[in-house]
Amino acid sequence: MKNNVRIIVVPLILVGLSSGVGGCATNQGTGALIGTGAGAGAGALIGSNVAGSGKRTQGALIGAGAGALIGGVTGSAIGKNGDDEKKAREKQDLKYQEAAPAPQYAPPAAPAPATPYTPPPQYSPQR
Q1: Which of 21, 44, 45, 115 has the most Cβ atoms closer than 10 angstroms to its Cβ?
Q2: Would you say 46 and 15 are in contact if contact means Cβ atoms under 8 Å apart?
Q3: 3-state DSSP: the chain helix, strand, coil percent, rounded to 5?
Q4: How far apart are CA 66 and CA 62, in angstroms?
């Protein structure tokens, strides 16, 4: 009995954690949603394969529920961490922008002096 529980629980935990990480790596704002979906799908596949014949539906449902829970929690935690890092980075960038000196532009150059135009001498062929 203990061996059967370990066969079911360990893969679900691993799949849920990996799906949460994958979900957050794609887009930090939707980490929980992607982690939940990926965890549910992976958990259903593992639960269906681990369950004995005749109990594949129950195994898939239990696996999907456990995978969704683990993936959602993991995705939410990783997504929140990524959002916090992004806010800190934006705050640091704003601090540097405010501390930067204003650009110093050179005064406009004086106009070039006007020189009278003298046309070139005419070409006259002499042979």
Answers
A1: 44
A2: yes
A3: 70, 0, 30
A4: 6
Give the pLDDT confidence of 97-114 residue by residue, as tens digits.
788 777 778 788 888 888
Angle among Cα 96, 100, 103 to the nearest 5 degrees reads 145
Residue 108's contacts (CB-CB under 8 Å, 6 or more residues apart) are none
pTM for this one? 0.43
Compute the CA torsion angle 67, 70, 76, 78 (nearest 10 deg): -110
Cα–Cα distance measured from residue 30 to residue 38, given in angstroms and rounded to the nearest whole number = 12
The Cα 63–Cα 50 span in angstroms is 9
